Amino acid sequence: MTQKRLYSNNPIAEALLDVQFDSNTALDQLKGFSKKLGSEFATINERHLVQTTFQLTEGKPIQAQNISIEGYDFWNNQKTEVIQARKNGFAFSRLKPYESWEKHYPEAVNYLKEYQKSFGENPAKRVAVRFINLIKIPNTKVELNNYFNCAPDTPKGIASDLTSFLYRVVIACEPSINANITIAPSNQVAIGSTADFLLDIDVYATYPVPISGDLSNVFDKLHGYAENIFEAYVTDLTRELIK
User: What is the DSSP track for 18-30?
Assistant: First the structure.
């Protein structure tokens, strides 16, 4: 494990804790979850699941699309936190300003426990933490290898100015724990003379998790992997930007 670092200019744009359960909770029950959250989470939005299917009819491809409601998003009044109550799961997201895991994780767990009290302590099929980092580099012409230890590049002999790219790998941290790592340009409009890049780290366990017990060991392990991955991917030049 690498040494834990704290950054005053924290690059985390969104931190998410997610649990998928072996359940299928009714929508009317999910919407009623707002009563447990109180007036702090007054804004309710539907979450939609879009399923697209293709089939051949008389030799012609036919596309069909089905849109269904999978749950609800409950936003807090400051628009800094959102709780997802889904038919098969729960998620808590913290947007900017993100302070620390130690501050926001206990809050997320409290809401998770409320979800369990409301809809039952079903087994978890997937437990995940995800950190979407926004790295703002004060230059529009960037050598990516100066800021990321592993970044896309072009072969010698052809133009090296990348106008768009998507770097994505999946690594096995240990049996049944994987991490999806993505680096890509941000779709945010650049301000002034900066170039913005996303470093998206999604670490998840896919083994059956005893949800009725203390999940802190699982989440702390996933969070530890996420921090190590972040430190492995960024260079000292990036650390200077966020220190």
Answer: EEEES----HHHH
5's tokens: 């670092």
What's the distance, Cα to Cα, between the start and end of the chain in Å? Answer: 20
Nearest to 104 by CA among 77, 129, 136: 129
- Cα–Cα distances (Å) from 135 to 58, 96, 138, 149, in that order, read 51, 13, 10, 14
User: Looking at the DSSP assignment, which residues form a beta bridge with residue 44?
Assistant: 74
The residues that bridge with 169 in the sheet, in sequence order, are 181
Instruction: Output the six-digit token pair for 68.
Output: 């269904």
Query: Mind listing the pLDDT tens digit for each residue in 20-30?
Result: 998 889 999 99
Q: How far is CA 12 from CA 79, 159, 238, in A?
A: 16, 32, 13
Neighbour tally for 3: CB within 10 Å: 6
What is this structure's pTM? Answer: 0.88
pLDDT digits (tens, 9 = 90+) for 47-60: 987 666 666 666 66
